[in-house]
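Q: I'm teaching a short session on how sequence maps to structure, and I want students to see two examples side by side rather than one. Could you give me a first protein with its sequence written out and its structure tokens following it? Keep the formatting plain so it prints cleanly on a handout.
A: Of course. Example one:
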Amino acid sequence: MKKNSLLLCILILLASCTGKNTTEYLYLSGKLENNKDSILTIAGKTGIIKTIAINTDGTFKDTLNVEKAIYTLTTSAKRTPIYLKNGFNISIKANVEDFMNSISFSGNGSENSKFMLAQIKESERLGDPAAILELEENQFKIKLGTIKKKYDSILNSYKYIDSSLVAIANHQTAQMMNYFNKTYAKNQVFVKGSPSPKFENYIDFKGGKKSLDSFKGKYMYIDIWATWCGPCIQQIPFLNSLEKEYHRKNIAFVSISTDESRRSGGSWDAAENKWRKFVKDKQLTGTQLWAGQDNAFQQAYQINSIPRFILIDPEGNIVNANAPRPSEPRLKELFTSLGI
């Protein structure tokens, strides 16, 4: 009897020393090979919730109290999503020099993070969405069916993931399918070979005004952009390089600015001046036009995000209403196929 009482006391003492119920806390540990950082962070929607020290040998461990959710584990240059929930005991291993290819999760609750990692790798294999949207209708439907089947297969191969994560994954797949189907249907409005919508009397930076018919007899590669658009500006060096390479070819590079009064203090004059200053300061080449208050061309092409690139043939007919960006190698392949 005394032995039993002594054993009970020892167990109670051990429990009081740890002070933590395994269902109320999350245990996280791991090792990072070739690591040069001293800390890693765990961040959620509201910001960093935990900073964890990394030992000199790359090992780390800590205890967290979390709301079940997707978090981001980050070192100075590497990051990965991780699904955390109290009661989990997750171990992480990775080589920092090949982080996403080498990372692995093990332990109780690790299936959730393994599943997310598998989805990320599948997304990387997806390829260029724009290329999928250019497929013939039957090929497009087959491709979309294959994509959905792969994501469903990943979901079905992980049996022990949290129901909330399953719901998120199903919603994301549905959103992706909806995007492809809606965008493909919209693109079919602009059938290759059909007459392009026109613009009239857009202000030319070099003087005068230009219309779409001003470029009859040449291919037109049109860039719809704005001075406030980061992704648009990112494409400018690639566009400049293309213009130099194809300078003597039968193609005009036409950039149409959609800068408007709303982003220039309510003044159309200020919007035009902002565009002119940008073109001058950045020494933009090609034909630089400003649409001003006339957005009929953009509306006709159903442009709701920029940059947008359009390729038109010498007769004024559509070649591609959603052409590859200047930074994409397949744009030159398209030019070559057209004999440009």
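Q: Perfect. Now a second example for contrast.
A: Example two:
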Amino acid sequence: MTPSAPAFPHAPARPATAALPLAASGTLRLLKRGIWAYFLLLIFEGALRKWVLPGLAAPLLIIRDPLALWLVLATWRHGLLPANPFLTGMTVVGIVAFFTALLFGHHNLYVAVYGVRILLLHFPLMFVIGRVFDRSDVEQLGRVLLWISIPMTILIALQFYSPQSAWVNRGVGGDMEGAGFSGALGFFRPPGTFSFTNGNTMFYSLLSCFVFYFWLTPRSVTRLLLLAATAGLLASIPFSISRTLLFQVIITLFFAMLAVSSRPRYLTRMLSAIFGGVLVVAVLSQTSLLADPLEAFTTRIEMASEVEGGAKGTLVDRYLGSMAEAIVGTKSSQAPFFGFGIGMGTNVASNLLSGDRGFLVSEEEWGRLIGEMGLLLGLTAIVIRLLLMAKIALASYRQLATGELLPWLLVSFGLLVLPQGQWAQPTALGFSSLLGGIMIAALRPPKTVPAPPEALAA
């Protein structure tokens, strides 16, 4: 029997000579272009639905799905998507849940197809990205994010100060009521180029991982670009009126400090970056441009803390409490053994089944999984996501010993997104697939080609 290679390498992978013809043929290059297209569609899908092609807003909701299907099938056909316990387990869960939804659940074929695509397309896409990309590709994606963050920050500033009736705030399908979400002091949370404000939060959360990384490895990017992206990240926190974004940046900072605590060379750079960031915030806070966003943001924090019971309610009950409620709460005990049917917890299902938008199952991700697929299948999907994240985190931690910081910093965001990200929402699903893929890819050294099937079989 041919020995199998680990799904996530802890050390530089040896060259795979059998895969060289594939790389030389251009197939690998084509697959990489497909991943870049997925990334760009994720960033600008909302712009297409709001401003460019509002009449096609509904079909554009799944514009990335055909691309994801092609990437998965093409990668599998070329032997670059071998079976592994995570992929096999989630595929089995998805197929079983699809048929139980039709037999025992909502009985709606369209809702079931829409729901199962999450597990059969976008979850495998993580392994496609992880196999086709390597660390150099992930770094290049980070540099592109730095460039995009500059106009994105200008856009959210315009959205913040503009009325909801303005063109920059136009909603999906050209909705004149606006795409902003309630914030504080009469200001709305801006969505940026995304359909909803959560995309804006996830964009800057991912950006923060690369901002810290490039500060610690400054030769990878020009200093002027890094300064501009850092200012954009800091400004985005009050402009977004998003506590989630603030908490995520703090978590990424904490991970960065852990990574460099035993390395004086990196620690000096980290302290310099923090000092520079504090200085930038202090200067910007004195300008009229950020005065209103800062006031709205602090008011939002105070109002939410009063409702949720302070930091404990915000950080502990909101995150861990919702996870526990999904498993032992009353909604879980009331769900049928096979659930109400996969896909029923999405807004698309709500429109098809009830004619209105809402949450027919649960707003929280774990509650949705158990409510849609039942306790057995739902818990299995949750455990697969937790174990996958644990394996990536462990591999990333081990690479810290070799001085590789990028996988570890990406894990700071992945720990919240991969286990409990709300995959029923297309933008959150897209960021989860992308993030899961680049976390795996960042573990692969640059300029290595994917190994042949016999070397990658689980």
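Q: What should students look for in example two?
A: Point them to this: Strands lie at 181-184, 187-189. Also worth mentioning: The radius of gyration is 22 Å.
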